[in-house]
Amino acid sequence: NAGVTQTPKFRVLKTGQSMTLLCAQDMNHEYMYWYRQDPGMGLRLIHYSVGEGTTAKGEVPDGYNVSRLKKQNFLLGLESAAPSQTSVYFCASKHQGYEQYFGPGTRLTVT
Amino acid sequence: EDKVVQSPLSLVVHEGDTVTLNCSYEVTNFRSLLWYKQEKKAPTFLFMLTSSGIEKKSGRLSSILDKKELFSILNITATQTGDSAVYLCAVDTGTASKLTFGTGTRLQVTL
Q1: What pLDDT does residue A78 have?
Q2: Which residue among B98, B103, B104 places its CB closest to the CB of A45?
């Protein structure tokens, strides 16, 4: 099993550009999550999904959109990137009742 | 607003020392408390605690939860340089198993 994978690992964007981060899991987990991690702020939840075709807002959803068209994939989109979105993005997945498994992260810089 | 506070923020110890990391929480709905270790990349799971007073143990690491006083501790005995990492505490607040994270304790173990 590859576990949770994220694509890309690194990306540099200019302000106003758009991009999509891909998260994939091969553990048949129902729940998936997107977090951002900033220095001194810990991990903050952006959006989450409790199943295929469903998504919901987390703590810091502004400027992001998500989609979960297939159970194994959870996409995070930035429509118009801003410097405040410079961060490390982590995806996680889980079965109900168990711990969250995290992907390796995507380091995004917006200039 | 749900809140998880970890202390100390950072800690430097010598190899062989014992350390205690603290996590207190104030949340509207508590399901479980989790500890993760984060080195360079993805957080990796250590413990999930749901009941007060029952110690979870894995090798040199152990953790316990006090649901009355709303805190948990993570103990590491006979520390090694490989224990150097950021230790994250998170509370599962029940709804879709969303996690609220603390900012972490950065542990550095020196020779």
Answers
A1: 96
A2: B98
